TrEMBL record:
Domain Glycoside hydrolase family 3 N-terminal: 42-354
Keywords for this protein: Glycoprotein, Glycosidase, Hydrolase
UniProt KW Glycoprotein keyword: yes
UniProt-listed SUPFAM superfamilies: (Trans)glycosidases, Acyl-CoA N-acyltransferases (Nat)
Protein family membership: Belongs to the glycosyl hydrolase 3 family.
Domain of life: Eukaryota
Record carries keyword Hydrolase: yes
The protein's name in its UniProt record: Beta-hexosaminidase
Organism the protein comes from: Tolypocladium capitatum
Biological process terms in GO annotation: carbohydrate metabolic process; peptidoglycan turnover
Pfam entry (one): Glyco_hydro_3
């Protein structure tokens, strides 16, 4: 074993893969591949031994370890001192769950601020708030010595109503989850900490089988996952800001994959996470102390499988005997030749590189603790109150019951009915109850959330205490008496009936009513009683407040007044009081994800100032807007990465263009952009973008209205369309599943989207290995179809006549532009046996001038040859003509040494014959054409 001095002087150069000789000691190397925890608020002999004798390099802290900020800083400092004295070359990774809402491991009302849950932040509609909150939270726990935040949660709630993940997730919209997740990543990084996305590949749509020994299952196909659940993970990886990824312990069962535990599968970790998504950071397994895993294969086998699958840190939460078993398992795996030293050292390199980014001995041994926290606390409290005030969401208030001062007369009684639920870990109530009862069976860690389902019912505490302060606070604000009692699975009892008879307004609180069905039944029963009272002329108003999942009654329109708080911490309940009494008026929150899109919130009637685009003033801001849209959009719109402000400005005398912006005149930032064109009697909406952080507040509607008004004023307009070929940024509405809501948006804006023309971009990714399909050349020869290549406008009369008669006016201008670029572009002509022109296509060299206006030609790292706008009139031979034009195009691209070829603007079902040639689909668009009457709506 290396000496202590050698250990202390070790300095790993992780960039080039060179490792200090210390790491050749397998015991030391294995210690760096494990992350472990323990129970207790002090260092125990067991955790000390793991650090000293087994060289454990990473620690996970939980609520069971932490009493206060000051104690946490001292505890971490002690752990790091033990590691330093034991000769660890780099400090320990110290990881913590601090998601806010109901999941905070560290609670200290004097120094650590409470912020809304991830979904609560999304309800504010402001991604910049996610950045501020995450940075504040990360700064606070960093002050206590923590250097790895286990977050953000990047799961998409595909089956939101029934998933236990609930408000820990941002929502059910992949773009929105990406947007807020990326903002959170920036906040963590700017606080000087490392981040860990979770829970890959997704905890957002799990099937639960019922037993503790049954692992929940993902049943979606890889294609379905790719279109939704994987989008935020993919975008987080692409951002380069994600340091680690927690790989879940769920199973996967679909036609292409049958996995028992995701974190033990090389299909998930090495293939999907690393190879497909390109993740180069640290992969962390879910906790391997799960009953399901130990029952299936035993911890020793599980740890070996996790490392073999590609996990760099294997998580074992608290049981010392299981942790020793895991260490022995890795040693046996190495001795048996199952786990190679190089595999272990690969993980060591990744872990050491991560440590170098987020910690050092000077930081680790001297956490600033409460001295820094006391300086930050006032500003963080202000941020917390603002966030909670902006998150409370009134989804419906049909009877105008809010504020209560407007719907209740003095002396009328208000009844509060609350369920018996366990207080949140992040609350003063929980801390005091635990202290009073000396209860050592606190909330199980979220890493074992399904293992403990139904097992901790004996520790459930009365919800009356959690909501009592809310009731007192509400009564104090109203200066009126308030009746309050709880309800249970026993339903409506005589005590409830008596109180309902007395009250003129009833507030029912629910918490995950879709999974605690007694709450839904109780609420519906009370709603029916109130309706019966009203039918007899008695005043009985009902307000339902969902204090966890907003999906409890989101779709039940019979609940006329419905409010969502997204957690039931003291901070959330205080903000709820301010909404109920009218101190916050109007309430500013909105439902996250698809619920926000489906609801016409008050803000949707907002009108924004729309100005004409000024290139000198707005070009830089437009580039920033395009990048923001790209980061929040699906991977099949990768071409947005290479789209620039210049892409939309043609300066073509035959095409009139008018572009519009919604902007912040103070900061010069663009909130939205719309591009319109007019040529040959056709008015075209070529693009419309809205800043992802400013969606759902009518910016798009304002731009759309102005764009159509401008087009409607053009003399001689015959029709309007969405999408165009020149510039070819959007050929139409993207028709992939994930963006189907875009089509709905245009449909709701007055467009008839029922009969689109499908336009496709296709690609051959590897021209070097592409071969001409067997029999194609012979078929072309038998049909006596000939091809030639021309350059320049002087030879182009027949081509332009052909295009003018068979394509849209903007396609004609595209051909003229290509012919004018005679050095970098040419036209392949197809002719029948008597010399008649029967097809044309544009061929462009790599880096031709066309790439500015067709960004797909630049959306890959390597140069792309272009085969653009094939125009083939419908004849019995049109399929063969198209294939021949594509073949000639591919040959030209190969002769220009292009490694791949893009075929753009394939019309309707013609793509089928090109797929048979070896082309792959890249993007599919729906071009929409309507009469100009829409401009008058």
């Amino acid at each position: 074993m290396a000496t202590t001095n050698a250990k202390a002087n070790s300095n790993s150069n992780t960039e080039n893969g060179d490792l200090d000789p210390l790491w050749q000691d397998v015991d030391w190397a294995i210690g760096q591949t494990l992350i472990m925890g323990w129970d207790g608020t002090q260092v125990t002999p067991q955790i000390k031994s793991l650090i000293e004798d087994h060289h454990l390099g990473s620690i996970i802290l939980t609520a069971k370890n932490l009493k206060s900020a000051q104690q946490t800083a001292r505890l971490v400092q002690e752990l790091q001192t033990i590691a330093k004295s034991a000769g660890h070359p780099q400090p320990l990774l110290i990881a913590l769950d601090q998601e806010n809402g109901g999941v905070n491991s560290l609670f200290d009302e004097d120094y650590v601020c409470q912020f809304p849950s991830a979904m609560g932040v999304a309800a504010t509609g402001r991604a910049e708030l996610a950045y501020e909150i995450t940075k504040a939270t990360a700064t606070e726990i960093s002050a206590c010595g923590v250097n790895l935040m286990l977050g953000p949660v990047l799961d998409v709630l595909n089956n939101a109503r029934y998933q236990p993940l609930g408000v820990r997730a941002i929502g059910d919209d992949p773009q929105e989850v990406s947007q807020y997740g990326l903002a959170a990543l920036r906040g963590i990084r700017d606080a000087g900490m490392a981040s860990c996305g979770k829970h890959f590949p997704s905890y957002g749509n799990l099937d639960f089988l019922g037993s503790n020994l049954d692992v929940p299952i993902i049943t979606q196909t890889l294609e379905e996952l790719s279109l939704s659940a994987l989008v935020p993970f993919r975008n987080a990886v692409a951002s380069g800001q994600l340091d680690a990824m927690l790989v879940g312990g769920c199973g996967i069962s679909n036609p292409s994959m049958n996995v028992g535990h995701a974190c033990l599968s090389d299909q998930v970790v090495d293939d999907l996470l690393r190879n497909e998504l390109g993740f180069k950071g640290v992969a962390i397994s879910e906790c391997l102390e799960m009953e399901a895993l130990s029952h299936d294969m035993g911890v020793q086998n599980g740890v070996v499988m996790a490392v073999e699958a590609g996990c760099d840190l294997v998580l074992l939460c608290r049981a010392y005997d299981v942790q020793l078993e895991a260490i022995m398992g890795l040693k046996l795996g190495y001795e048996n030749g199952i786990v190679t030293k190089e595999r272990i050292l690969t993980s060591v390199r990744r872990v050491l590189k991560l440590k170098a980014t987020c910690t050092s001995w000077s930081k680790a041994l001297n956490p600033p603790g409460v001295s820094l926290l006391s300086q930050l606390h006032a500003s963080h409290l202000t941020l917390s109150r603002r966030a909670y005030d902006d998150s409370i969401t009134v989804m419906r208030d049909k009877e105008k019951l809010l504020p209560l001062s407007g719907s209740m007369h003095p002396g009328e009684e208000l009844l509060l009915l609350t369920p018996l639920i366990k207080p949140l870990p992040a609350s003063l109530m929980t801390k005091s109850l635990l202290a009073a009862k000396n209860n050592h069976s606190a909330t199980p860690m979220n890493h074992e959330m399904w293992v403990h389902r139904g097992r901790d019912r004996g520790t459930i505490m009365s919800g009356e205490g959690a909501f009592r302060e809310f009731g007192k606070n509400l009564a104090r604000y109203r200066n009126e008496k308030l009746l309050h009692t709880s309800y249970t699975a026993n339903g409506v009892r005589p005590v409830h009936e008596n109180l309902i008879n007395r009250a003129s307004c009833i507030i029912i609180v629910t918490a995950d009513a879709n999974r605690n069905l007694y709450q839904a039944g109780f609420t519906k029963h009370v709603d029916m009683m109130c309706s019966m009272h009203r039918s007899r002329g008695n005043k009985k108003e009902l307000i339902v407040v969902a204090v966890s999942s907003p999906y409890d009654f989101a779709m039940d329109k019979s609940i006329g007044t419905y409010i969502c708080t997204f957690d039931f911490t003291e901070s959330a309940m205080s903000a709820l009081v301010r909404v109920l009494v009218g101190e916050i008026d109007p309430p500013r929150g909105s439902m996250p994800g698809t619920l926000r899109k489906s609801k016409k919130v008050l803000k949707s009637r907002q009108h924004w100032l729309v100005e004409e685009y000024d290139r000198s003033r707005d070009a830089k801001a437009l580039n920033d807007l395009l990048m923001a849209v790209h980061r929040a959009t699906a991977p099949d719109l990768e071409f947005l990465k290479t789209t620039s402000a210049a892409s939309f400005t043609l300066n073509n005398p035959n095409i009139q263009e008018s572009h519009f912006v919604v902007r912040n005149s103070s900061t010069q930032a663009l909130y939205g952009f719309a591009a319109t064109y007019f040529t040959g009697g056709v008015g075209i909406l070529g693009a419309i973008f809205v800043d992802p952080g400013k969606r759902h507040v009518s910016i798009g509607r304002s731009l759309h209205r102005r764009a159509l008004k401008s087009l409607g004023q053009q003399r001689g307009i015959k029709r309007v369309q969405i999408g165009l070929t020149f510039p070819g940024v959007f050929l139409g509405i993207p028709s992939n599943l994930e963006l189907s809501t875009v089509s709905d948006w245009f449909s709701n804006s007055g467009w008839d989207t029922q009969f689109p023309r499908k336009l496709t971009n296709m690609v051959i990714k590897d021209l070097g290995n592409w071969a001409v399909p067997e029999g194609l050349l012979q078929s072309i020869q038998r049909a006596s179809i000939s091809f030639d290549l021309i350059h320049g406008l002087e030879n182009a009369d027949s081509v332009l006549h052909h295009v003018r008669g068979n394509a849209n006016p903007e396609v004609l201008e595209l051909y003229k532009y290509a012919l004018a670029e005679n050095k970098s572009c040419g036209i392949v002509r197809a002719k029948d046996p008597v010399g008649n022109l029967i097809g044309t296509v544009i061929i462009s060299r790599q880096n031709s001038a066309l790439i500015t206006y067709i960004p797909s030609l630049l959306c890959h790292a390597e140069d792309v040859g272009g085969i653009i706008a094939p125009i083939v009139p419908s004849t019995p031979q049109s399929t063969l003509v198209l294939q021949g034009l594509a073949l000639m195009g591919v040959r030209q691209c190969k002769s220009h040494k292009a490694p791949r070829a893009l075929l753009s603007w394939v019309v309707d079902d013609a793509s089928e014959s090109l797929l048979a040639m070896g082309f792959e689909l890249l993007q599919v668009f729906d071009e929409i054409t309507n009469s100009p009457d829409i401009c008058q709506n």
